Each structure stands twice: as structure tokens, then as C-alpha cells.
């Protein structure tokens, strides 16, 4: 946040409520700390067990005293990390993930260890499904704590393949640099020296998908200065590609320190007194053993989290997780206490012959998930209101920027595409064909076609008694979807005839009507779903259609895949539209009707 926001008491209180107050368990891992096991062993045999310094005893004692003095005391355990070979660190990590806060010594084997074992533990924690707060407690490298921060950040990072230029573009950059080097010896090293390890980490933090962001930093401005002062008539690639190449060259020199697994985006921040490292599932701050007592852990951790500028939505989602942990049992009791509702839900769940087992499972989860949310809503409403008041008081563009977002992107084409897709579709939650399913029809002769199922859901239940001309097949109305430009779909999105579908990880736009023209009629067919409309593996099914061939009607079978499902309200809108079209009387009309395809 801007400094005014970062020092706000209300802002600090929100962060404390989300990240600090939920802490209940703390595990300290330090090879110099006395553990309960080692102290008991020394009592039994004075020649064995723990034999550390008084300073280490005092640190553990201070941590225990502080933990027990809190209104909601922390439960503390100590582990010395001895007797565990480096290869076993990943087996140790699952035991540590049950803590809310991990205090980790960086040099677990004294002076012989350069942080490798601590980094292995952090990697294992970053790879699990639990969010972990970590205080790395260290003497540093002769007081150099930034080196520890760099090593941890690099150890949690992985190769960014986006930094590698295409081979032909890299060849051009190298040829141009060779020509420049021939006229100005040492310029390549001068350019590379501008991209330090700290610079590399800062670019990956601030510009994770835009390496040319380097050019907006002080180092980048100097690179641009070199570029402008190049010898006359020397043709060079764009500064964007040059910045890309320089970052990738630096990445090659750091690659040995990276994680072999992708642990998500790694962000780093440092100032004179505060540092932080954040991955998708891990938050780390490095604190000095000599000058920071355990009683300061909470305030230092709070300052580090605040410096990382968590977005309003990150704070809200983290609060939601905390509410489930803290109040989930009370909410669960309230939900299970309504015996009348539970009776009906249980009867549905235990139905021995459900027509759609997948739907039964999904509905059961959705009902209880919604009920859980209703129980927890009250406290979340208050928190969200405070959150809005804090952030709404400051310039919107500054908040967007420090959340890694751009205010102008809120109305960008890409953002609106994804917004409309998310608003109108949902994960496929049926194991049989139903209203609003988007069908991709495969054909060896033409491009894949997309159709939407628009028969009422009550007519799509497999096994329902009905008169069928095709034994075992389910008749349904299918309406063809026509591709349209994203520009037309966005401009007319409120007309409720356009669809935003995610097809093979890309948002594609279609219309219920040909060419997106509201005066056109929908193109529909009566199709038949084999096996009563039930899906095969991976939402695949067989369909049949009656087509004319040489003046005769013939049944054609083809493969199809359900690729999307509309949310109920949108599916009903399209069902209403096709219903109106199919039921129009046309009395007294003497116009040439549009021929349907």
C-alpha cells in the first residue's frame, strides 16, 4: 500500500485479524534449541541429551512465556532437526504443516550448513495444500540477512520459460550484440551487470508476465541509456527484446539454485528493517537471532505481511478460511441440528436408484456448502464492510497497482471475456444430457460444430417413460451456435443471445442466432442422444440425427462431447427463447418465411 495506507491502524487490525489472530500452534525447528526429548534424556543420563548454551534456553523460554501470555495462548513445540538426513526433509515437512506458524533456523547444521536443509523444508511446505506462515530465524552470513532472503527466494523459484526468446529472435539479438561489442568492447558485460540477482527477483515480483517492465526500473533506464548511446548506424533490436534476453541470461546463471518443481509465483520484498517472501502457499520473513526476541515475532510478522500489500480479496478469502477453522464446528452443529431438512437431504443422498449419481453428489455438496456459508455470513459481512471502508478511502489506481493489477484492465476485452464466461457458465455437474449443455459435434469432414441442448430438464431424465421412435434414444431440441467476433459479443452482451465459452483454454464467443443478427431465427434440429442421454468417459456421448440423402431420410450417428454447461438462469433464458420461437402461431401471416438450415 501507499505509506498512508500501510500505517493505518484499521488496516493493521484487518491484517492481524486475518493472519495473526488465527495462530494457535507454533513449531520451532532449530538444531541449538533444547527439545523435550533431549531434556528428558539428560535427566535420565547426565552424560547424554541436550548440551547447548544458556542463550538458546532463554530464547525457548521467552517464546514459551510469550505464547502462554496471549489471550488465546499458542501451543509451542520444539524440534531440533537432528538425526534427519537431508533426503528425509520432505518426510519431515508434513508434520510441520499442521502448525499455524513455523519458526525455522536457517542453518540447521551450524556452520557446515548453508541453508540447503531449511530450503528443502520450505519447498516441501510450499508444495503442500496448506498455507504456512514461517519465521526464518538466523544469524545470517556475518550479519548479511539479504543474502538469506535471496537464497530462499531463489530456492523457491523455478525456471520462467517465458523469458526465453524464440531461437530466431535470440539469434538476431546475439548478432547485433556482437556487432556492438566489436565497436565498443565490454558493452555486453556492462549490460549484463545491470541485471543483478536482486533486479531479477524484483522483475519477477513486479512484472511476472511482462519482463520488459525491467526498462521502467533504474537499472532499465541505464540500459536504455547505453542503447541510445550506441555507435551511429548500428541497427539493434527493440529494447524490449534486449531486456528479455538480459533477464534470461541472468536466469541461466541462477538456475542451479532453483527448485526443480514449479511452486508457483514467487514474490519478494525488502527494506531496511522488513523483508518478505510469498508463494501461493507460503509466507516467509527472515529475522535476526541476535536482535529480535521471540516476543517480537508477532509484530515483525505483521509488519512483513503488511509490506507485502495483500489485496482486499486475498484478505477476504483468508478470513473465510480462518472462519471455517474457527467457527466451522458451530456452523456444522447448526446445519445438522435441523432434523427436518437433514431428513430430506439424507433421503435424496441414499436413493438406491438415482437417475444421475453425479448430480446427487454435486447437489449434496452444494446444499451443505451453501448452508455453511449462510451460517458464517454474519462475521464475514462485518469484516468485508471494514475492508471496503479502509481501501475505498484511497486512490483506486494506487490500490490496483500495489495489488499487481491495473484499473484500466477492468474494462479490457480480455477481462470482460473472462468475466462473462465465469458469470454464465459453471463446471459440468451432470452425468447425462440436460438443458444448457454445450455440445461439440465431431466430424471428419468439417470443423467442429457447437450446439446447445434446449429441451426442458424434466424431459431429459434418463429412463423416464416416453413414446420413442428410436429405442433407447433420448429426443431433444438442439440449437446451432454461430461464432461471432468478440467485439460484437461484448457490445451486445445484454441482448442475452451471446455465449462466452471456454474451449481448450481459450474464451470463444458464439451467438444463438446466425451472424449475431437479432432478426434471424435460430437454427434447430431434433437430435437423439443414445443410451438415454447418459455420458460415456470424459463427458462423451453418441448422438443421432435424421438427415436427407438423395431424397431419402437417413439416420446418421456421430460422436459428441459436452464441453460446457450454462448456469441455470442463462439456460432458462435460452429455453424460453426457443420455446417462444417454436410456439409462435403465425395466424394470418402471408410473408415469405426465412428458410431454416
Topology record:
Layout: H1 3-6, H2 9-20, E1 25-29, H3 36-44, H4 54-69, E2 75-79, H5 89-96, E3 101-105, H6 116-127, E4 132-138, H7 145-156, H8 167-183, H9 187-193, H10 197-206, H11 218-228, H12 239-254, E5 267-270, E6 275-279, E7 282-288, H13 297-307, H14 312-337, H15 339-349, H16 357-392, H17 396-402, H18 413-424, E8 425-426, E9 437-441, E10 449-453, E11 474-483, H19 486-491, E12 498-503, E13 506-511, E14 524-529, E15 540-549, E16 552-566, H20 568-582
Parallel strand pairs: 1-2, 1-3, 3-4, 4-7
Antiparallel strand pairs: 5-6, 6-7, 8-16, 9-10, 9-16, 10-11, 11-13, 11-14, 12-13, 14-15, 15-16
Helix pairs in contact: 2-13, 2-14, 5-6, 6-7, 14-16
Q: What gap, in angstroms, lies between the N and C termini?
A: 58 Å
Q: Give the CATH level 1 class of the largest domain.
A: Alpha Beta
Count of DSSP-assigned helices: 20
Radius of gyration: 31 Å
Mean pLDDT: 85
CATH superfamily annotation of the largest domain: Response regulator
> Helix coverage percent of residues?
40-55%
Within the CATH hierarchy, at the fold level, what is the topology of the largest domain?
Rossmann fold
Strand order of the main beta sheet, please? 2-1-3-4-7-6-5
What spatial form do the alpha-carbon principal axes imply?
Answer: globular
The unreliable regions are 1-8, 593-597
Please identify, by name, the CATH architecture of the largest domain. Answer: 3-Layer(aba) Sandwich
Number of domains: 4
Largest sheet: 7 strands, mixed
State the total count of DSSP E strands: 16
> Hey, roughly how much beta strand do the residues contain?
15-25%
Amino acid at each position: 500500500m501507499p505509506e498512508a495506507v500501510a500505517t493505518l491502524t484499521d488496516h493493521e487490525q484487518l491484517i492481524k485479524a486475518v493472519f495473526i489472530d488465527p495462530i494457535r500452534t507454533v513449531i520451532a525447528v532449530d538444531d541449538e534449541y533444547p527439545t523435550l526429548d533431549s531434556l528428558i534424556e539428560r535427566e535420565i543420563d547426565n552424560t547424554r541429551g541436550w548440551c547447548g548454551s544458556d542463550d538458546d534456553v532463554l530464547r525457548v523460554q521467552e517464546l514459551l512465556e510469550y505464547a502462554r501470555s496471549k489471550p488465546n495462548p499458542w501451543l509451542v513445540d520444539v524440534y531440533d532437526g537432528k538425526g534427519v538426513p537431508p533426503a528425509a526433509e520432505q518426510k519431515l515437512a508434513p508434520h510441520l504443516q499442521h502448525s499455524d506458524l513455523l519458526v525455522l533456523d536457517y542453518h540447521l547444521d551450524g556452520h557446515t550448513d548453508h541453508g540447503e536443509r531449511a530450503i528443502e523444508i520450505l519447498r516441501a511446505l510450499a508444495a503442500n495444500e496448506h498455507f504456512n506462515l514461517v519465521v526464518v530465524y538466523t544469524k545470517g552470513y556475518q550479519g548479511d540477512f539479504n543474502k538469506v532472503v535471496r537464497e530462499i527466494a531463489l530456492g523457491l523459484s523455478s525456471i520462467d520459460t517465458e523469458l526465453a526468446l524464440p531461437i530466431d529472435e535470440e539469434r538476431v539479438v546475439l548478432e547485433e550484440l556482437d556487432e556492438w561489442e566489436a565497436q565498443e568492447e565490454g558493452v555486453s558485460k556492462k549490460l549484463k551487470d545491470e541485471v543483478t540477482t536482486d533486479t531479477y527477483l524484483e522483475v519477477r515480483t513486479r512484472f511476472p508476465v511482462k519482463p520488459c517492465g525491467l526498462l521502467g526500473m533504474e537499472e532499465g533506464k541505464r540500459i536504455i541509456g547505453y542503447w541510445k548511446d550506441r555507435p551511429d548506424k548500428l541497427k539493434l533490436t527493440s529494447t524490449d527484446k534486449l531486456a528479455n534476453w538480459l533477464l534470461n541470461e541472468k536466469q541461466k546463471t541462477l538456475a542451479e539454485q532453483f527448485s526443480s518443481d514449479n511452486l508457483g509465483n514467487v514474490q519478494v520484498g525488502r527494506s531496511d528493517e522488513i523483508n518478505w517472501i510469498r508463494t501461493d502457499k507460503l509466507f516467509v520473513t527472515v529475522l535476526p537471532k541476535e536482535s529480535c526476541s521471540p516476543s517480537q515475532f508477532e509484530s515483525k510478522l505483521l509488519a512483513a505481511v503488511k509490506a507485502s500489500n495483500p489485496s482486499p480479496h486475498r484478505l477476504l478469502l483468508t478470513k473465510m478460511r480462518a472462519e471455517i477453522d474457527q467457527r466451522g464446528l458451530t456452523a456444522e452443529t447448526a446445519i445438522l441440528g435441523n432434523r427436518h431438512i437433514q431428513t430430506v437431504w439424507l433421503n435424496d443422498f441414499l436413493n438406491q436408484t438415482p437417475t444421475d449419481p453425479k448430480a446427487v453428489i454435486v447437489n449434496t455438496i452444494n446444499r451443505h456448502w451453501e448452508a455453511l456459508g449462510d451460517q458464517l455470513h454474519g462475521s464475514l459481512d462485518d469484516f468485508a464492510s471494514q475492508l471496503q471502508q479502509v481501501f475505498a478511502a484511497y486512490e483506486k489506481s494506487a490500490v490496483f497497482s500495489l495489488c499487481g493489477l491495473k484499473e484500466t484492465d477492468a474494462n479490457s476485452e480480455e477481462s470482460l471475456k473472462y468475466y462473462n464466461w465465469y458469470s454464465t457458465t459453471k463446471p459440468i455437474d451432470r452425468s447425462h444430457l440436460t438443458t444448457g449443455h454445450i455440445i461439440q459435434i465431431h466430424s471428419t469432414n468439417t470443423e467442429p460444430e457447437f450446439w446447445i441442448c434446449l429441451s426442458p430438464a424434466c424431459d431429459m431424465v434418463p429412463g423416464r417413460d416416453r413414446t420413442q421412435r428410436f429405442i433407447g434414444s433420448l429426443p431433444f431440441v438442439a440449437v446451432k451456435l454461430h461464432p461471432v467476433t468478440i467485439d460484437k459479443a461484448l457490445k451486445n452482451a445484454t441482448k442475452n443471445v451471446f455465449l462466452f465459452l471456454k474451449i481448450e483454454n481459450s474464451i470463444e464467443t458464439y451467438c444463438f442466432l446466425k451472424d449475431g443478427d437479432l432478426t434471424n431465427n435460430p437454427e434447430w434440429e431434433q437430435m437423439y442422444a443414445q443410451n438415454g442421454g447418459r455420458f460415456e468417459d470424459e463427458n462423451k456421448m453418441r448422438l443421432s440425427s435424421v438427415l436427407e440423402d438423395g431424397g431419402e431420410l437417413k439416420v446418421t450417428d456421430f460422436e459428441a462431447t459436452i464441453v460446457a454447461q450454462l448456469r441455470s438462469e442463462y439456460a432458462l433464458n435460452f429455453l424460453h427463447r426457443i420455446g417462444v420461437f417454436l410456439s409462435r402461431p403465425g395466424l394470418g401471416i402471408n410473408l415469405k418465411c426465412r428458410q431454416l438450415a
